[in-house]
Amino acid sequence: MSNTALLVMDIQKGIVGRIAAPDYLPRLAQAVEAARNAGIPVLHVVVGFRSGHPEAADGNKMFGALPEGAFTPEDPDAAIHPDIAPRLDEVVITKKRVSAFAGSDLEMVLRAGGFTHLVLAGVATSGVVLSTCRQAADLDYRLTVLADGCADADEEVHRVLTEKVFPRQAEVTSVEEWTKAVG
Known about the structure:
This protein has helices at 13-16, 24-38, 106-113, 125-138, 155-165, 175-182; strands at 4-9, 42-47, 92-95, 117-123, 142-151, 171-173. The chain is α/β, with parallel strands linked by helices and 183 residues long. The chain has a six-stranded parallel β-sheet, with helices on both faces. The chain starts with a strand and ends with a helix. This is Cysteine hydrolase. GO terms for molecular function: hydrolase activity. It holds the Pfam family Isochorismatase.
């Protein structure tokens, strides 16, 4: 599994707080711990901007409308949730758009590390997971999506993506099945 990396995406306090399922973070923590125990690097992907949001154009419907100070270094809600906190030796990638690749150095880190298989988890299924899955597939990465390691405010959208869309480009499995396979 030395060519595999687990991408844990947008597990920031202000984003995870929108997910109602109380079992989501403990389940995701199991995946992170299983990866660490198996020697699979965990890469943490966060959305972040400079103060004043110079990277967010006014015309960008999602990011141009952010409140002043949101997802900046001063914003406590931009921090990675403590249940999934990165270890000192784990890479944190900061992105400027929805996809983990957009406005970040993710691809450089993946290529330098020789990673060819990405395991995806995060919030939201219809946001960062979908955008990253599509772009990673176009970049020829082998993909696994942890269906219950992803969450979305719209459960039907989550279901359609994990059952009908993602299987076209990725293996879709559960955290439990994946942890058994890597353990």
